[in-house]
Design goal:
Layout (H helix, E strand, L loop, with lengths): L4 E9 H7 L7 E4 L2 H4 L17 H23 L9 H10 L5 E9 H11 L5 H11 L5 H4 L4
Antiparallel strand pairs: 1-3, 2-3
Length: 150
Amino acid sequence: MRMLPVYVRITAPLYWWKEFDTYKVGTVANSCSTMHKIQAKEFTMDDFSCEHLMGGYLEQMRRIIDDLNNARKYFTVGDQFFSPGNKRDWWQMIQLLPSSYNQTRNVMMNYEVLANIYKSRKDHKLDEWRSFCKWIEDLPYSELITGGKR
């Protein structure tokens, strides 16, 4: 199973990536750098995994996105006191960014790593892990990973 490589592009929230990063042996990943690209485009609700937020919490998320966009605007265009590119405004985005922010990474791993992930995460409380395990079940020869279970 170590000799069956898998290359995949994954977009997932930072809270999911924190858990994925426990699988360091047999994985290689590179990401679209949050540190260098955070200001590249305006923030929208689609940039975040917030499908379970309701009522006031959803409104709070909208306010956070507004605050992120204000800091982005000051960073990219400046204001009456600071020229564009001021690190003060960059820090506002980095430190305010919620863990629900979706980050994309290109990942290389193998069937052995996927078997470990599948065994540990197939019944996880996070929707993202259950979806990832469903994706694993659709891979060619997935019975090697799942033990024939679907």
